[in-house]
Amino acid sequence: MKPDVDLQKNVLHALALDPHVDESAVGVSVRHGIVTLDGIVESYGERDAAVAAAHRVPGVHDVANELIVRPGWHTAPSDSEVAEAVRDALAHVPSIPHERIQTTVCGRGRVTLEGTVPTPAQRDAAEAAALAVGGVELVSNLLEVEAA
User: Fold this and answer.
1) Number of H helices, E strands in the chain
2) How far apart are the C-alpha atoms of 100 and 97, rounded to whole Å?
């Protein structure tokens, strides 16, 4: 087992390398090999990315996720701003056929994805892209996958 200080250093490095995580917002502590992440992040997607980054570090088996999601630190974005940001996020992932996806934003960061995509991977990628948007708290993924 790696010493706790080495695991902490390696997890901090993994967070810094992940483009979906603001590593300055995430605290990392390690005790008896258990990594604890704490702090305040902008989205559930960022929280999930931080946990995944910690788990990618060799020697990390357990992660205590104490991250708090608080979108829009100063002001919560309007539904229109969230809708625009989700559309932009979908359009910037080359594998997502964003023109085939309809979104609905309904108060307090709730996003619904509807439409049809060719593959399950595209369905999952669309959900992940929407979750990564600041201000999004919940994604209802109603995307259907085309029959083969």
Assistant:
1) 4, 7
2) 6
CA 120 distance to own-chain centroid: 18
**SS3 assignment, position 88:** helix
Residue 93 lies in a domain: yes
3-state class of 77 per DSSP?
coil
Same domain, 84 and 56: no
Give the domain range for residue 25. 4-69
* Residue 128: both structure tokens together: 């992940």
Tens of pLDDT along the chain (148 residues) come to: 568 899 999 999 999 999 999 888 899 999 988 999 999 898 889 999 999 999 999 999 999 999 988 876 546 778 888 999 999 999 999 999 999 999 999 877 899 999 999 999 999 999 999 999 988 889 999 999 998 6
Alpha carbons 12 and 65: distance in angstroms, whole number: 15
Residue 63, Ramachandran bin (φ over 0: left; ψ between -120 and 50: alpha; else beta): beta
- For β-strands 138-141 and 62-69, DSSP reports them as unpaired
